[in-house]
Specification:
The chain has about 650 residues and is mostly beta strands. About 5% of the residues lie in helices and about 60% in strands. The strands form seven sheets. The chain has a 22-stranded antiparallel β-barrel. Strand 23 and strand 24 (about 410-420) form a beta hairpin.
């Protein structure tokens, strides 16, 4: 109640101050150009013509949120769940259910490059940490399936992180953050060059003491480089490279199989993109990338110290893609192309072999935008994929958009997506051995697991009401997951191991249905103010109680941004999440969550330089459980100083 009274008082005061401004408010303040979306169909499209519901987090929202990484920022997207825990290497995000430790049913792209982890069951946690927030131009979040455009693992949500063009980051910039819970962040970048050849080098560090109750002391160190080259008017070349190093505490006191220890993860990548303009509304794009990751994570097994439990290993991911985009006529645009991908994993502790596990993918895709009438747009697309370990998959999509009237769009469609099992789900063989004697086996896959698939049906509505300063984005969905993969224990015959072993196998257990609705309402009641209200209702039908509560039935968030006199920025963010099974807990451990954040930012200017000093308080209220019932997110207050020229 005290928080609500304080919140109401601050909103009322801010409203009164803003009302004193003499400037009149017109429809131009509320009705700007429709945002363009780059990634959903691989065609640049207006937001109201994309084949799906998209939330865009732009650079201003990223700054005003006070978030320290992308995972925490995704709390502002309807239907998303996030965690700040480093127990699984880095903070997590999931859409429509955190069904496992690693959030493996979602695709994340950074400048078009897939950053999911082949090693950690397809986890996207480390990939979300690839670049610093200061280098991000925008984040496009497709709330729905998109295997039609991106193939394997684009099953429940796709996040596309677009970094800033180097021409927009010339000069120097640096920031420092310090505060409670050991928050010590530092970031610096330098940009140089001309319009035809520009470059950026960024370095940053993010560190804190972690969640109360966890084996915290987390640190992320990043180096990223980007070059944008235009050798002539027809060709554009982009080169990206980076190194991510995560050093964090993991484990729980008293759990022999997950003892407290320090672990690390290093991820390196190199990417080259080339785009050639072939004429009006036609171009050819080519991309090649290499990503490799290595993890160190081992500790002594307390009952038998001579036995080492090890989760370490290495993986690599190589991809080559080409796509051709063209306009057939005034009503039809097409993009088509193909990809070759090769994943390699090496880890004797996880697979009981020194041999590398290799999976190769071949993909062919095509998407078309057809304006069948002035106000009717049909998006049709499909992906055909062949995997060397899982065979063939087919993912079609049809979506029809109807511009009922100016600013009012209805959308309806159906799509099919899939997720092949990870290498661990297919081939895991984890055993504790002493002097050649197998003491216990904890995971032993039979290899019988087959790909999951999802049939998604949705209707949506986009509405702009400029006279009221309102924008509404509504999605109603029904997602049928076939062959849902779940670990199941079984008993090995006596004598197989020294101790009785009940290892896990991964099997297609059941069909799971996810249905519900979510919406985002943006309201600008006066100049320089914005309210964003998100709400999602998610109903998961499963025979397993933990799966049924993998997403909260009801979750809401309210965000308020206000520009105050003197250029001061005020941000207030309040989030309520219903009962949910935490990703690091059993089905018996369901908790709810409430969190309120405050940010005040004051612009600085001295000579030709400019900057900002900001105070951020995360979680003004009581501590809440994060990832595990034993881990608590308490209040964190910190100050950030940013300077650039």
């Amino acid at each position: 109640m005290n928080r609500l009274i304080c919140l109401g008082a601050m909103l009322g005061w801010a409203s009164w101050v803003s009302a004193q401004a003499p400037d009149a408010v017109s429809e131009k303040d509320f009705l700007g150009e429709m945002p363009m979306v780059l990634s959903v169909s691989r065609l640049p499209q207006r937001l109201d013509e994309t084949p799906g519901a998209v939330t865009i987090l732009d650079r201003d929202m990223i700054r005003l949120s006070g978030a320290r990484d992308v995972a925490d920022l995704l709390r502002l997207v309807p239907g998303f769940q996030t965690s700040t825990s480093f127990e699984t290497n880095a903070p997590l995000a999931s859409y429509h259910g955190g069904f496992d430790y690693y959030s493996a049913r979602m695709q994340v792209l950074v400048d078009g490059r897939s950053v999911y982890s082949p090693y950690f069951l397809g986890s996207v946690s480390a990939g979300l940490q690839t670049v610093a927030l200061a280098d991000i131009e925008r984040i496009e979040v497709l709330r729905g399936s998109n295997s039609a455009a991106y193939g394997a693992r684009a099953m429940l949500g796709v996040i596309n992180i677009v970094t800033r063009h180097t021409a927009d980051t010339l000069g120097g910039q640096a920031s420092l953050s310090s505060g409670e819970n050991g928050v010590h962040d530092a970031q610096a970048r330098v940009g140089w060059g001309t319009g035809d050849a520009s470059f950026r080098l960024s370095m940053d560090r993010r560190a804190d003491a972690g969640l109360v109750g966890s084996n915290g002391h987390n640190e992320i160190n990043r180096v990223n480089f980007r070059a944008d080259l235009r050798p002539n008017g027809r060709n554009e070349i982009q080169l990206l490279a980076g190194d991510l190093f995560i050093d964090s505490g993991r484990g729980v006191l008293g759990k022999d199989g997950n003892a407290p220890r320090d672990g690390s993860l290093e991820l390196r990548y190199l990417q080259l993109d080339w785009r050639r303009n072939l004429g009006d509304d036609e171009d050819l794009a080519f991309s090649v990338s290499h990503t490799e990751e290595s993890t160190r994570d081992h500790f002594s097994f307390a009952p038998i110290p001579a036995v080492t439990i090890d989760f370490g290993g290495r993986s690599s991911n190589d991809m080559v893609s080409a796509q051709h985009t063209f306009r057939h006529d005034s009503d039809l645009r097409v993009v088509w192309g193909g990809e070759l991908q090769r994943e390699v994993i090496t880890s004797k502790p996880l697979y009981n072999t020194d041999a590398a596990l290799v999976t190769e993918f071949t993909r062919l895709f095509g998407n078309a935008e057809w304006r069948i009438a002035r106000d009717w747009i049909l998006n049709a697309g499909a992906m055909a994929e062949h995997s060397s370990t899982h065979g063939d998959s087919w993912a079609p999509r049809l979506m029809l958009n109807w511009h009922v009237t100016q600013g009012q769009t209805l959308r309806a469609g159906v799509s099919k997506a899939f997720r092949p099992p990870s290498a661990f789900e297919k081939f895991s063989d984890v055993r504790y051995v002493l002097n050649g004697i197998p003491l216990q086996i904890t995971s032993l896959s039979s290899g019988q697991v087959q790909p999951e698939n999802v049939l998604a049906r949705e209707v949506g509505y986009l509405g702009d009401f400029p006279s009221l300063g309102l924008h509404l984005d509504l999605r109603v969905f029904h997602e049928q997951i076939g062959g849902f993969v779940r670990p199941q224990q079984f008993t090995l015959p006596p004598g197989t191991t020294f101790f009785t072993s009940n290892p896990y196998d991964y099997l297609n257990s059941e069909d799971v249905t996810i249905q519900g609705a979510e919406y985002q309402l943006k309201w600008r009641p006066w100049r320089d103010a914005q309210f964003i209200f998100n709400q999602s209702y998610t109903d998961i039908n499963s025979v397993d109680r933990g799966t049924a509560l993998a997403a909260p039935k009801l979750a809401s968030s309210l965000t308020y941004f206000q520009k105050l006199p003197g250029g001061l920025d005020l941000s207030l963010m309040h989030q309520d999440s219903g009962t949910v099974t935490l990703q690091g807990a059993s089905f018996r451990d369901q908790v709810a969550m409430t969190r309120t954040d405050l940010r005040l930012g004051l612009p600085l200017r001295f000579g030709r330089n400019r900057g900002e000093v900001a105070v951020v308080v995360q979680n003004l209220g009581m501590p809440y459980a994060d990832f595990s019932p034993n881990f608590q997110f308490q209040r964190r207050a910190f100050v950030t100083l940013r300077v650039e020229n």
